[in-house]
Specification:
The chain has 388 residues and is an alpha/beta fold. 55% of the residues lie in helices and 8% in strands.
């Protein structure tokens, strides 16, 4: 039986597909005619379920393997194609250099390159990382976590706006509040009877209410998931971090080792070997940027509160060697992920002092704006390490 490699360039409304024989050097008039008829029929077609059903009928009883590029639309298309019996692979877009670096970038050329990538993969050449496509339930869980992250980011921005407004107009509270939206601070700020300030405080009230509601929804949905409970037991992990990492991991069994686990979050160094030298390189930054930011924050809080852990001792050791804080935090984050991997594989929680765990969770719930914000902070400097 002929093996077929199909490349599909997917967009919101249309798709373009190209097909190649999966075996090198195998050609005949029958194969060439089939390729031509496929490319003509599926040169450009609507990206709807009925059109994919038509492709399934066209490829009935044939051994075919489809490659699509990871995008917003790819999740929907993946599950439609899978339901029709296709073998589907989703590739990380950053690995597809023949497409991203092409000087002749058209939908037809992209689909042909995807088919070529698929053919080489079928013949043992692994040129790209495969994207994990979760079920609809796991996607919903992931989205509610992103919603919570957005709400917390907006609250952080609003806090900064309140402080800037007070400074601009020469308003001073009786004491310096670490959290300008605490109950005591809000009570005092309302006393200024300033219209703009009142609007800011009203926004804070609504944001905190939405955040509280969302956190309760997440706890209700995630608390029975073993991966969530294991991550949540770690000093430094809050509700958002535990839930979002859980929604990305889904199944710890799909990671072959602790290195592949940390690599999925982009926390492993790039590899570069030229002329016999192996220079130090930065991390790959593959995967989800929000997850990486939350991992940095979890490590940051862990170092501050868990004084005797391996990760904290590693932080002190590397800092003593003169390493920069951001480099050390990345290295410690990688180590923390290795520990988490072992905990998840063995299905056991982190053991810590309950009071330390509670205090660290409170700190972990404050979300920083970006990776740079948290890597620039030193967790060992008390007040400056506040994540607001």
């Amino acid at each position: 039986m002929v093996i077929w490699a199909i490349g599909m360039d997917v967009h919101k409304d249309t798709c373009t597909a190209r097909i190649l024989c999966g075996e090198y050097g195998k050609s005949s008039k029958r194969i060439d005619d089939f390729i031509e008829s496929f490319d003509t029929k599926f040169r450009r077609f609507p990206s709807g379920a009925s059109e994919f059903l038509e492709m399934a009928r066209f490829m009935k009883d044939k051994d075919c393997h489809i490659l699509i590029e990871n995008s917003t639309k790819s999740h929907e298309v993946y599950w439609i194609l899978r339901s029709l019996g296709f073998d589907v692979t989703v590739a990380h877009a950053t690995d597809l250099n023949r497409i991203t670096s092409s000087v002749k970038k058209t939908d037809r050329n992209d689909a042909y390159e995807l088919a070529s990538y698929m053919r080489r993969r079928l013949n043992g050449e692994i040129e790209f990382a495969e994207s994990f496509i979760p079920s609809h339930d796991w996607m919903r869980r992931r989205e509610i976590c992103r919603y919570l992250a957005d709400e917390k980011s907006e609250l952080t921005v609003t806090k900064k706006q309140i402080r800037a407004y007070l400074l601009l107009h020469g308003m001073h509270t009786r004491r310096e509040y670490k959290d300008i939206t605490s109950k005591g601070a809000i009570s005092e700020l309302m006393g200024f009877k300033d219209t703009v300030l009142s609007l800011y405080l009203k926004r804070v009230e609504h944001l905190k209410a939405r955040i509280g509601f969302t956190e309760k929804a997440i706890m209700s949905d995630f608390m029975n998931i073993p991966i969530f409970r294991t991550i949540y037991s770690m000093v430094g992990a809050g509700i958002l971090t535990s839930a979002y990492l859980t929604s990305l991991i889904v199944d710890i069994g799909r990671f072959s080792s602790k290195k592949s686990f940390s690599a999925s979050f982009g926390l492993t160094p790039k590899l570069r070997d030229s002329g016999g030298s192996e220079p130090e390189c930065g991390i790959t930054r593959r995967g989800d940027a929000l997850a990486r930011r939350l991992i940095y924050q979890m490590t940051f809080v862990h170092i501050r509160f868990e004084k005797d852990s391996f990760v904290t001792k590693k932080y002190h050791r590397l800092k003593a060697r003169g390493k920069k804080h951001n480099e050390v935090l990345v290295a410690c984050s990688n180590s923390l992920l290795h520990i988490l991997y072992i905990m998840l594989v063995e299905n056991r929680g982190y053991i810590s002092d309950p009071d330390v765990l509670k205090e660290s969770r409170n700190k972990a719930e404050m979300l920083v704006e970006s990776e740079e914000d948290v890597t620039e902070m030193d967790p060992l400097e008390d007040d400056r390490s506040s994540l607001v």
